[in-house]
Amino acid sequence: MSEADPAETGGEFHAAWTAMLRAGHGSAVHPSVLGRLAVESGDLLYRAAQDQPFQPRLAGQAGALLVDNHFTDPAVLADALEVLQAQPLPDDRGPALCGAFAAGWAAALRERTLREQETIRLAADTARQEVEKALRASEARFRALFESAAIGIGLGDTDGNILAVNRALGEIFGGGPEDMTGVRVNDLVHPEDTPGVWEAYEELIGGKREYFQFDKPYYRRDGEVVWTHLTVSLIRDDDGTPLYQVAMLEDITDRYRLQERLRHQATHDPLTGLPNRAAFFERLEKLFEEPEPGARFGLCYVDLDGFKVVNDSLGHDMGDQLLTAVAGRLDAALSPLGHLVARLGGDEFVVLLENCRGEQEAVAAAKTVLAALAKPVLIGDHKLAVGASVGVLERRIATTTPGAAVRAADLTLYRAKEAGRGRWTLFDPKENARAVSRYAVSVRMPAALDRGEFFIDYQPMVDLADGSMAGVEALVRWRHPQLGVLGPDEFVGVAEETGLIMPLGRWVLEQACGQAADWVARFGDRAPKLSVNLAVRQARNAGLVSDIDRILRSTGLDPARLQLEITESTVVGPEDEALKALHALVDMGVSLAVDDFGTGWSNLAYLRDLPVSALKIAGSFVGDLHDPAKDTHLGWRIVSGLVSLAHTLGLTVTAEGVESRADAERLRLMGCDWAQGWHFGRPVRPGEIARRIAEANLPESDFAGER
């Protein structure tokens, strides 16, 4: 079955396969039947091993073929797996081939057993129905079947007392029939019993169901655990009253242990023996299924420092020994604390803290990781110094998802490496948002516009004098398929760094101006003025003026209804080229406003040179007015001073971040012209803005009431 000489190796395999079957109980099978069985099953396995792609169905058919020809001894299965494992197979498909064969064998044996069970059940029922006609004959037939059946059978009353068992059932429990008679079913409870089995038993006794089936463990008389496939049926009299229960048990211990070995191989790293990536994610996702309110968890994402140097200089064998030693240290240090340690691949490990009590416990686990790896690792004649960097994440389960948590821990790990390695770094939401944004923009943004992933919400800007909606600010959003809806703070900055702000900015202007023109067509003078943010890179682009002129012409929007918001860093001096473009826009009829005023260089002389007509006071000024650590009285004086300054320069003032009626009223009294913030309305879809315009029949609109 090797790639070098399939014919020769195929012959060797068929010979080994035939010898194995003959060594089983093949001596009791007619030679012609045995020969045909060896050829058919061997051909199926050979094809399964060689075909591309791999077809586990063929290996399963081979296993079922053995059972169909009475090769049902578990020892035959073990011998067959040894023969398969001894063959050189392409693509490392040995475990998969063995698993598929064993699964086919087990499934066929189960079906065969179930057919026997059904035969027994029907025979028992027939015996009950014909007891009045031929009681003696029926009893004899049932007794013969009962005593000679290969499956364990027990009869009990509806109170749970065992009345009789056959020899096979006694052997399953390590004794004779007399040892089981009189025992109560409840006395056979296993501490790790299958969930739901006793609820089903109570429903059976209560007449709510006719039968149930479970794979269930029991203790033998010698203390060993035996796994069984249990089927319990209810026997009723002619009036439907429950009389007896019949239990049939098949010993599946060998099959169960085989399945456990295969599962262990599938969920554990073959090099270190730690749980692998699949097992880690299975455990993590289980935490998120039905968490308790307020439940927390922690992750320590671990990456070895300098492992590549060891691997490259001393060889992969030495690297594997180092990974095994590291895994042993981590497991010994953290598993006794109740934490799961898993190897994700390469030199990456992860520690999962279930029911974490807070950041301190997660940080303590990270320190334990570093302490466990502080001493050099002795491998042969080499003393290897190994360190690690750890990204620490601790969150409430309700605030995130498994995938997002792992990504955040991974990004935090790389922050630890960038900070100098050999340390732990705690998850920072702001840093994580920046990293996620940078990744999202760099990977997906170039095509996101074509995919229609961007959309625009509009936030009301209210005239404080009469409460009317005087304008709206266009705010771009990104409906990212993996990260959800992202706000401008999460991607616009990175878009400026990469130059992607140019096509995005043009798209926002086109969409927003088109929407504003539509409102004007529908509502006339009641339509709000449109305000759009202009990025620094856009303002300094030579094609800005022509772009806006083209957009206004194509949408039909009056330039007087467009206000562009620029930051204080847009123009760095009176000779800046951007200043010429801004003057050209104002000459065109577009108005300009300085956004977030007070957070930049705030050179008042530049305000004299800038062709702006409005200032927007940064929301942080208003927000600080409610900070108990800051002087509220001084804060209001600063805001009042900004309003007076703007009016002295002939500028209108808009206050951002207004979230209460009291703040809105105080701003109105000090002469602030416009305001926006959650008190007046959060950013909403265009349809909601249209609804509010339509409902504003009087100058005193909805917003006047909210003032």
TrEMBL record:
<dbReference type="InterPro" id="IPR001610">
    <property type="entry name" value="PAC"/>
</dbReference>
<dbReference type="InterPro" id="IPR000160">
    <property type="entry name" value="GGDEF_dom"/>
</dbReference>
<dbReference type="InterPro" id="IPR000700">
    <property type="entry name" value="PAS-assoc_C"/>
</dbReference>
<dbReference type="Pfam" id="PF00990">
    <property type="entry name" value="GGDEF"/>
</dbReference>
<feature type="domain" description="GGDEF">
    <location>
        <begin position="295"/>
        <end position="429"/>
    </location>
</feature>
<dbReference type="InterPro" id="IPR043128">
    <property type="entry name" value="Rev_trsase/Diguanyl_cyclase"/>
</dbReference>
<dbReference type="InterPro" id="IPR013656">
    <property type="entry name" value="PAS_4"/>
</dbReference>
<dbReference type="Pfam" id="PF00563">
    <property type="entry name" value="EAL"/>
</dbReference>
<dbReference type="InterPro" id="IPR052155">
    <property type="entry name" value="Biofilm_reg_signaling"/>
</dbReference>
<protein>
    <submittedName>
        <fullName>Bifunctional diguanylate cyclase/phosphodiesterase</fullName>
    </submittedName>
</protein>
<feature type="domain" description="EAL">
    <location>
        <begin position="438"/>
        <end position="697"/>
    </location>
</feature>
<dbReference type="InterPro" id="IPR000014">
    <property type="entry name" value="PAS"/>
</dbReference>
<feature type="domain" description="PAS">
    <location>
        <begin position="138"/>
        <end position="208"/>
    </location>
</feature>
<dbReference type="InterPro" id="IPR035965">
    <property type="entry name" value="PAS-like_dom_sf"/>
</dbReference>
<dbReference type="InterPro" id="IPR001633">
    <property type="entry name" value="EAL_dom"/>
</dbReference>
<dbReference type="InterPro" id="IPR029787">
    <property type="entry name" value="Nucleotide_cyclase"/>
</dbReference>
<dbReference type="InterPro" id="IPR035919">
    <property type="entry name" value="EAL_sf"/>
</dbReference>
<feature type="domain" description="PAC">
    <location>
        <begin position="212"/>
        <end position="264"/>
    </location>
</feature>
<dbReference type="Pfam" id="PF08448">
    <property type="entry name" value="PAS_4"/>
</dbReference>
